[in-house]
Write a structure and sequence with these properties.
The protein is α+β, with helices and mostly antiparallel strands. It is 36% helix and 24% strand. It is built from four helices and eight strands; from the N terminus they run E-E-E-H-E-E-H-E-H-H-E-E. The strands form three sheets. Strands 1-2-3 form a three-stranded antiparallel β-sheet, with no helix packed on it. The chain has a three-stranded antiparallel β-sheet with strand order 6-8-7. The protein has a two-stranded antiparallel ribbon with strand order 4-5. Strand 7 and strand 8 form a beta hairpin. Helix 2 crosses helix 3. The termini are far apart. 6% of the residues are buried.
Amino acid sequence: NGGVGKIKKINQNEDGTIVSFDVKYVMNGSEKGVLPQHISVPGGIKKREVHVYQPFQPENFVANLEAARAEVLKRRKEKLALSQSVSQKKVKSDNEPKTKKIKMSVNDPNQEDIRSIEKIKIKTSPEEPPLVVIKGIDDVRRIVSSIHQLTEADEFDVTDVEAELKKVNVVLGNNELIDALEYLDSLNTIMWAPPMIYLI
């Protein structure tokens, strides 16, 4: 017969050697046992890629939740330790004299007596860090605190925050909300583990 067709079956030996093909022609008819030398692939046709699909592995949400809660506990302990350390330093600083006085003697050429003068060394405070401006940061902080007070929950979904923001007519883009949550995370106020928010 001959012509353009599709290979319907490949006939092989036990060792895998191709013996012949069964062909179904596009126009009409079919033929079995066509020898390999009579089969050719038209020019321009590319070999179809075969994709091996990996079996679906469901996400272990329980393990992820336990890992997030463990991280929250760790950060809470670190925050508590830091707070206690700062408090101890403040108490120590409060007990120290605020100023240091240095007595000096100076001879006044116009007078016979010696006057004592005091120089007070004033401790300068370190420069404050630059102010970071995050759109909606105060609203997000207030909403997070409000949800905690109403529900007494230490963890909740970000959709809860979005819903409460809409109630008070605060419009934030998705990226702006994420920026605010990430900033609160950097301050160790919350832990932002999408889509969950954990209070520290």
